[in-house]
Write a structure and sequence with these properties.
Layout: E1 2-6, E2 9-23, E3 26-39, E4 45-56, E5 62-67, E6 75-76, E7 81-90, E8 94-105, E9 111-122
Length: 128
């Protein structure tokens, strides 16, 4: 598991390889990731946006950004946890992702970025 703490917000990431899938006559490698966001600060925060950088070892960088995560903009009080799962398709069997969440302090309305640490996306058979 990969962990990173920014301004009291802990991000933990676990990944899983889910095999291959065909779309539009191309084969893709399917990766799942589970993110846990833990508020270790003393303030209530809300996740408003995300930005992902997805690296595929065969392709160029892909940027994905938007509002919230999996259709939600969770609010976390001190010591709250929020967990969600998502995934991505890569043309190669190896890659990586990182990025950041934009959060807002619900008391001061200050916006800040929380780092999503770089995590590897690798077909386990490539590790042999």
């Amino acid at each position: 598991m990969i962990n990173q703490i920014t301004k009291g917000i802990k991000i933990s990431v676990e990944t899983k390889y889910n095999g291959t899938s065909s779309r539009n006559y191309k084969t893709y490698h399917v990766f799942e990731y589970a993110i846990t966001i833990e508020n270790k600060s003393l303030e209530t925060v809300k996740l408003t946006d995300r930005l992902w950088k997805i690296f595929d070892s065969l392709n160029t960088l892909q940027i994905v950004s938007g509002s919230g995560v999996v259709g939600q903009t969770p609010t976390l009080k001190p010591n709250d946890l929020y967990t969600y799962s998502s995934g991505c398709f890569l043309e190669s069997n190896m890659g990586a992702m990182n990025g950041f969440y934009t959060m807002i302090n619900m008391k001061t309305f200050e916006q800040f970025k929380v780092t999503i640490p770089t995590f590897q996306l690798t077909n386990p058979t490539k590790l042999n």
